Amino acid sequence: MVTGPIIRINPKVPKSDEDKNLLCKGVIMAEIFHDDETARFFQLVHLFQRSALLQMGQLPDTEGNVHYNMAEAKEAIDLLRMLQNKTKGNLQDIETSLLNGVVSELQLQFMKAPAIHRKRQQEQNQSDAIRDTFANPQKGPVEDLSGSQEEEE
């Protein structure tokens, strides 16, 4: 049994793309929780969603570290897909829509994750090179400007 209160505010199905997008991005609105079991179910969905995003490097952990483990991310998405299949026909329309949206968004992020990870690594490598140059200026790259001045004269 859930110990905290469940807030119920005029349940409605999201009509605009913006409302659906908010639901897919983990902003779980209290409007859809009709009972304790629904709230608990979406706590579970949110747990797997956060786990997948964390393992894809989309969210930092509690210490601010970024992880990249696509096997773990895939496992979290596969567990959500299993829940999606096992609950088919047992959820209300809004619940089905939310679950489908979470799974679809995670699958899309899964496809984008390797490129984002490569870009992040390149930026980190460039940042490390700049930091090393300032920490050890004698070992940093040198640009010879003396030859270009003589050529101009």
Report on the structure:
The chain has helices at 17-24, 36-55, 70-86, 93-135, 146-152. The chain is elongated, with a radius of gyration of 24 Å. Helix 2 packs antiparallel against helix 3 and helix 3 (70-86) packs antiparallel against helix 4. Helix content is 62%, strand content 0%. It is mostly helical. The longest helix is centred in the C-terminal third of the chain and has 43 residues, at 93-135.
Keywords:
153 residues, 62% helix, disordered N terminus
State which percent range the strand residues make up: under 5%
**Rg (C-alpha, Å):** 24 Å
Uncertain runs with pLDDT below 50, 5 residues or more? 1-12, 24-29
Order of helix and strand elements from N to C terminus: HHHHH
What class do helices, strands and sheet pairing give?
mainly alpha
Largest sheet: none
Mean pLDDT: 79
How much helicity do the residues have?
A: 55-70%
Number of helices: 5
The tally of beta strands, per DSSP, is 0
